[in-house]
């Protein structure tokens, strides 16, 4: 599957994290980018997180090889294989960008993220929005929503042609409830645009970000309780 996030959503997420952590001069933070892919999202965040330590984590050796060209620290780890290779409470923040929708067991994944975060630590999660503005229109027309997939071999019944392995999709309300039930306190949910929206519709997609429940991408900031 693709390992790069869209720059617009990565930058918005990075700004949320930078605001939450504050300047590194006060106390440098440890930020784990879990599911870092090729490191693009973390590299986009790095200028806004100067002085903080960003560690890329992924299960794919190919992804980590690419990430090493952008990040100083990369570690192999698997959420689905049990524990990440970090002690409990080591992280001040976790970036979890476009990962949760690919997981068979998202509950165990959030349990593990909560374990590695210190009390009060920040979770920055992003995921496609099942109830994006265009998906509501597509469903009314009897068309399969964008981001959803019914096969691992090909796309059927919806726009697009690339299979990326989405297993779980969330609305803003469902995402809030899911994260809260996993032992986090939701601080804020913001919207972000989707780079795959056709160019003539992109101004409308950016406008929809003002109402996260309608936006293409959900950006959630939560803290470990």
TrEMBL record:
InterPro entries: SAM-dependent_MTases_sf. GO terms for biological process: antibiotic biosynthetic process; methylation. It holds the Pfam family Methyltransf_23. One of its GO terms (molecular function) is methyltransferase activity. Keywords: Methyltransferase, Transferase. Transmembrane segments: none annotated. This is Class I SAM-dependent methyltransferase. It comes from Streptomyces jumonjinensis.
């Amino acid at each position: 599957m693709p390992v790069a996030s869209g720059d617009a959503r990565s930058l918005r997420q990075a700004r949320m994290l930078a605001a939450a952590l504050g300047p590194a001069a006060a106390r440098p933070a440890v930020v784990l980018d879990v599911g870092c892919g090729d490191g693009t999202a973390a590299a986009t965040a790095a200028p806004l997180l100067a002085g903080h330590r960003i560690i890329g984590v992924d299960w794919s050796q190919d992804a980590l090889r690419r990430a090493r060209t952008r990040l100083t620290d990369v570690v192999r780890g698997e959420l689905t294989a049990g524990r990440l290779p970090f002690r409990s409470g080591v992280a001040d923040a976790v970036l979890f960008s476009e990962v949760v929708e690919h997981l068979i067991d998202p509950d165990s994944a959030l349990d593990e993220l909560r374990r590695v975060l210190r009390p009060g630590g920040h979770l920055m999660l992003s995921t496609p929005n099942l109830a994006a503005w265009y998906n509501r229109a597509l469903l009314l027309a009897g068309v399969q929503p964008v981001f959803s997939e019914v096969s691992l071999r090909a796309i059927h019944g919806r726009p697009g042609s690339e299979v990326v392995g989405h297993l779980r999709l969330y609305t803003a309300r469902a995402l809030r409830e899911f994260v809260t039930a996993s032992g986090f306190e939701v601080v804020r949910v913001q919207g972000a645009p989707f780079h795959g929206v056709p160019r003539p519709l992109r101004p409308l997609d950016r406008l929809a970000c003002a109402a996260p429940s309608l936006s293409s991408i959900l950006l959630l900031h939560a803290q470990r309780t």
